[in-house]
Write a structure and sequence with these properties.
The chain is an alpha+beta fold and 200 residues long. It is built from 6 helices and 7 strands, in the order ααβααβββαβαββ. It is globular. About 15% of the residues have low confidence.
Length: 200
């Protein structure tokens, strides 16, 4: 079973649904995967921990997503310099970062870290166009929420550019509540961010 399959099954077990759901989850997964493979829709994907040498792939992935929004720019030598050695950065924050690679490139990333006590932060969750609408974003979100919860997290917080409205709808569907507080980054994109918080 792949890493992603295991994550889905472990979430079901963690949430207390028992052996029946474990069996059904596996049966449904393999049936769906077989259908998609027959239709040529499933690429070989691999979820793994981020490495420092993923810098080029992360910059290409996130920079490409930013370019879909007018006036939004990635700053890998300034505000986004953490991407130059992202594993090292996440280690320094006491967190974990993950990427999905396939077809020789990075297709998605997600990370999380503690803030203080039982407060945790969701960081840099991005999916390429190739994976949007596949349900992979939801799987990645649940995966890091479960990992944070296992470490004692009671809440997950995130900050998101006010222009990323599609992402905001996704967060709100998953129980994240937009707060009154905003913050300005004073960067070349003139970014203002909303804060979202979810009780875990």
């Amino acid at each position: 079973m792949s890493f992603l399959k295991a994550a889905s099954v472990c979430r079901a077990l963690y949430m207390g649904h028992g052996v029946v759901v474990y069996y059904v989850t596996l049966q449904n997964y393999f049936a769906e995967e077989q259908r998609e493979r027959e239709q040529g829709q499933v690429a070989e994907l691999n979820l793994r921990l981020v490495r420092d040498d993923d810098a080029e792939g992360l910059i290409a992935l996130i920079g490409g997503i930013f370019s879909e929004y007018e006036g939004v720019y990635l700053e890998p030598d300034d505000l986004d310099s953490d991407l130059q050695a992202y594993k090292t950065y996440m280690d320094s924050q006491g967190g974990e970062g993950f990427v999905i690679d396939g077809d020789g490139k990075l297709l998605a990333c997600v990370s999380y870290c503690p803030i203080e006590g039982d407060r945790y932060q969701l960081k840099r969750i991005y999916l390429s166009k190739d994976l949007r609408g596949s349900g992979m974003g939801l799987k990645l979100l649940h995966y890091v929420e479960d990992r944070a919860r296992a470490r004692g997290a009671k809440s997950m917080e995130l900050w998101s550019d006010t222009r990323f409205t599609r992402a905001h709808s996704f967060y709100e569907r998953e129980g994240y509540v937009k707060q009154a507080e905003t913050r300005d980054l004073h960067d070349s994109s003139n970014t203002t961010e909303y804060q979202f918080i979810k009780a875990l």
